[in-house]
């Protein structure tokens, strides 16, 4: 089953295929002069996928308001259909990352629906940063690190339930982000609070299936504004070390202080075998959850430069999960997610163009100018024909946004999905 008519995609591609072929050949010639085979880059890009967060297909919001768009998904089954649209047009997003309890449904129906759409499931996400209507204990003062044992127990049990649901769906990882922290100096005892967190996390870790990984996600602040329990990559690394070999750090690009060198954090985590994966997005000020590559595409490229470096030298234990985590407040979420998935692929393709042996030579001889120029040469290359050809080869759209708009999908779903109120959103 497809959400977008295949003949529409073919028709859209027909008008663009000739120019694409010429652009691809021209770029191929130029890359050949640099000793790079364009088809190899295209094949790597084609094999590269980034997971869609189920919560990303609904319109997001800020602390002030949420302005729902037309035809918003009513629940997880509508969300899966929207995710399928993104994958059918970009061929870059074969998996969906679920958030529980937002996406709670019968696992067999979920799996059947995903299979029908040709989608799989990436990491499961737990939610102990909100209270659900039927829960016994409140997370107002924390969850896994709460002072009250019964509240911690409830948060642990919720994570175990996420594992259980994920296991039925074929997921292989659990991502844990908590909002625990404090808003006032003196409110919490830093050490005791972190001890409680570790104790809870160890219980979750102990129940992880053998082939699963646990990703813990750090974030500098918000909703706690004075201190956050898992606030930075150092704390996150300590957690992964304490828990064991199936525990890894998840890097959300927006979860750092401004100007922090994220690519170096990535390199450190790779070096010590603890890089679990990414939540890609972009930011200008804080955890803005803006579209990936929309503010600082060079930083995204520099992160991918580290990833390709690790891939090239077969760094031990290197197998990061790639997910988007964004909030779309003023765009059609499907369009934003398509463009963002392509931005991730673009950064990957550009990083594949870095002449690594030359770079190493410049680094060894302390030629700073030529070293940085080597990176810039790769970054400046317009790899759009590579990305478009990878999509075309796999039945996607040469221009996914144009094809999406031509399909009238949003209008069609707006006719059957009632105008949404405020349900199912979230920024994590
Ligand atoms: Mn995140």
Structure, described:
The chain has 428 residues and is of the alpha/beta class. Helices cover 48% and strands 9% of the residues. It has 15 helices and 11 strands. α1 crosses α13, α3 runs parallel beside α4 and α10 crosses α12. The two termini are 31 Å apart. The relative contact order is 0.16. Bound molecules: manganese (II) ion. Manganese (II) ion (MN) binds next to loops. The site of manganese (II) ion has 5 residues, from loops.
In a few lines, what is going on in this structure?
Helices cover 48% and strands 9% of the residues. By secondary structure, the protein is of the alpha/beta class.
Q: Sheet with the most strands?
A: 6 strands, parallel
Name the ligand types. manganese (II) ion
Query: What sequence of helices (H) and strands (E) makes up the elements?
Result: HHEHEHEEHEEHEEHEHEHEHHHHHH
Number of strands: 11
Report the uncertain regions. none
Q: What is the rounded distance between the termini?
A: 31 Å
**What is the number of helices?**
15
Please compute the radius of gyration using only Cα atoms.
Answer: 22 Å
